[in-house]
Amino acid sequence: MQSRRNFIRNIAMAIPAYSFAGVLLSSCGKSDIDKLKTGKKIGIIGAGISGLHAAWMLQKEGYDVEILEASDKVGGRIQSIGNLLNMGSSELGAAKVYGQNNDWNQIVRSQATLQNSSQNSSTYFIDGQEYSQTMMSSSTDYQSMDQRLKQLSGVNSGSDMTVENYMETMQVPERVQFIFKSKTEQFLGTSIDRASVVLNSLEGLEKINQEEYQSNISFEEVLMRQYGTIYPTIVNNTQVISIDYSGDKIKVVDALQVERVYDQVIVTVPLSILKIKSSQAYGIAFKPSLPESKIKAMDMLGMDSSLKIFLKVNKKFWSSESSSIYVNSKIGKFEILKSNASSGQYLLSATIHGENADILNNMSETEIIDLIKEEWKEQINETASKSIIEHKVIFWGKEKFIQGSFSYHKVGSHAETRTELFRPIEDRLYFAGEACNTKNNSGTIHGAIETAKEVVKSISKKQA
Ligand SMILES: Cc1cc2nc3c(=O)[nH]c(=O)nc-3n(C[C@H](O)[C@H](O)[C@H](O)COP(=O)(O)OP(=O)(O)OC[C@H]3O[C@@H](n4cnc5c(N)ncnc54)[C@H](O)[C@@H]3O)c2cc1C
Q1: How confident is the model over 1-27, as pLDDT tens digits?
Q2: What is the DSSP letter of 2?
Q3: Band of residue 463 on the pLDDT scale cut at 50, 70, 90
Q4: What is the rounded CA–CA span in Å between residue 198 and residue 163?
Q5: Are 409 and 196 in contact (CB under 8 A)?
Q6: Which end of the chain has fewer CB within 10 Å, C or N?
Q7: 317 CA distance to ligand 1 centroid (A)?
């Protein structure tokens, strides 16, 4: 992760001098003219993908935009690191491009090469036994579990229950329940005992059947190349603590008591932050308070802790064609991110959400690695357990201005919940970000972009 100063220095280095200067010059000239054109100043709270995309579009349309970002970074839940555990660049947060026909896929494709990384082959470890994909696929237990997984996106009506209740009702065989759990939790952003099956079926759970891709350059570099022109409008280390929309202009105050005034404001902070009471640390006070319907919508949605664990191992204990391993344990799935056959070193990663993330959050990094070693010793073998030579854990739930992974519907939520969260107030105070997505794309980068586009459309329509 890097500071804004480094970040801007790096853009200058990453983009050829002539194109960077050209972009800046053309954007300066254009925005001067356009400021006259719209005469409106728009404040955007949060420099995650939705904030960046909204600012980029608005700037092109001639608005004067300013992004207030609490942290010293840009990208929010998209964070890349140049060299992780000496295995090259890695994504500490979002890592995959989901689906084909969406803006994020097109943006990354325009800057980089995308490789289909849908995982077709895994190695499975159950009670000390190793199973290849072929062996698992031919077992009736696995087939029944896989069929239930594929059917999940169809469970979009009827009486609601948790995904766990559904798994039990549909009699997914106990032996392979951990695979069902790992595959669903990765898209739910929480554990199966917390999420509604009906309301998440067309959202997170639908992604089980989608294609996924990986970029050959870091997402951070994609952001720089795509949104470089708006970086000068970002004010980092500026934690917004209150938004007063009672008067003609909207007054935004930061933690250092600096007040800024805008015609319109777009709030893109994560749901977890929006949910915090204004009297508590990191909460935002709205004056007047947000409508009851919006507060209820926030209650219906969850955004839980998550951790991303990176392990460097010096033994390959899975079959060559596998892109992931499943282990019948608390941390059920590891992806094989990088292989360096010449040094015999491999980089693996696991993302844990919900209940297990809460447990791991109370442990130190060393305790977590010891737990993995213990589980691997039991479920795989001693060689695997001893192969872990380096590690890094990212606690997303403990990131002050993020506090979780991504949003999901709790049981009791309803189809209108996200619409309510997304609804602007008085056509001046707008909400964007993954949790506001009403097109079944919550919890994703492209879903967050969609909300930014819709907000910009509403602002432009109002201006016209
Ligand atoms: C571990 C993990 C893995 C993921 N994997 C994928 C994946 O592979 N593919 C995918 O498509 N999606 C993935 N996602 C989801 C994806 O990252 C998010 O949906 C998307 O990045 C959210 O963008 P956003 O703009 O809505 O919010 P954010 O990126 O969270 O941006 C909000 C910004 O608001 C700032 N902020 C918070 N409070 C304040 C305040 N008071 N004042 C000012 N600023 C504030 C934050 O610092 C942050 O920068 C993953 C997420 C996580 C955590």
Answers
A1: 444 444 444 443 333 332 333 333 334
A2: -
A3: confident
A4: 8
A5: yes
A6: C
A7: 34
Using an 8 Å Cβ cutoff, are 219 and 107 in contact? Answer: no
- 398 alpha carbon – ligand 1 mean position (Å): 13
Distance 86 CA to ligand 1 centre (A): 26
Taking only the tens place, the pLDDT of each residue in 281-322 is 999 999 999 999 999 999 999 999 999 999 999 999 999 889
Contact call for residues 226 and 242 (beta carbons, < 8 A):
no
Q: Which helix H or strand E contains 43, and what residues bound it?
A: strand 41-45
Q: List all residues whose CB is within 6 A of at least one atom of ligand 1.
A: 45-51, 68-71, 76-78, 93-96, 98, 239-240, 268-270, 273, 284, 306, 308, 351, 396, 401-402, 405-406, 433-434, 443-445, 448
Same topology, domains 4-76+221-300+415-463 and 119-210+305-398? Answer is no
Q: What is the pLDDT of residues 194-214, one digit of tens each?
A: 999 999 999 999 999 899 999
Ligand 1 centre distance from Cα of residue 291 (Å): 24
* Structure confidence at residue 168 as a pLDDT band (50, 70, 90): very high
Q: Give yes or no for residue 34 having a pLDDT over 90.
A: no
Distance CA 425, CA 43 (A): 15
Q: Sketch the domain layout of the chain as residue ranges.
A: 4-76+221-300+415-463, 119-210+305-398
Which is nearest to 308 in space by CA: 90, 97, 93?
A: 93
**Which pLDDT value is given to residue 298?**
98
Mutate to test the pocket of ligand 1, among 257, 258, 269, 430 (most ligand atoms within 8 A of CB): 269
Neighbours of 257 (CB within 10 A): 8
pLDDT tens digit sequence for 395-427: 999 999 999 999 999 999 999 999 999 999 999
Q: Strand (E) positions, 80-207?
A: 80-81, 90-91, 97-98, 114-116, 122-126, 129-131
E strand or H helix at 294, and its extent?
A: helix 292-300
158 dihedral zone (left: phi>0; alpha: psi -120 to 50; beta) = left
**Measuring from atom 34 of ligand 1, which residue has the nearest CA?**
46
Record: fold of 4-76+221-300+415-463: FAD/NAD(P)-binding domain (3.50.50)
CA of 430 to the centre of ligand 1 (A): 17
CATH number of 119-210+305-398: 3.90.660.10
pLDDT digits (tens, 9 = 90+) for 223-268: 999 999 999 999 999 999 999 999 999 999 999 999 999 999 999 9
Positive or negative CA dihedral for 57, 12, 77, 325? positive
Amino acid at 329: S
401 alpha carbon – ligand 1 mean position (Å): 9
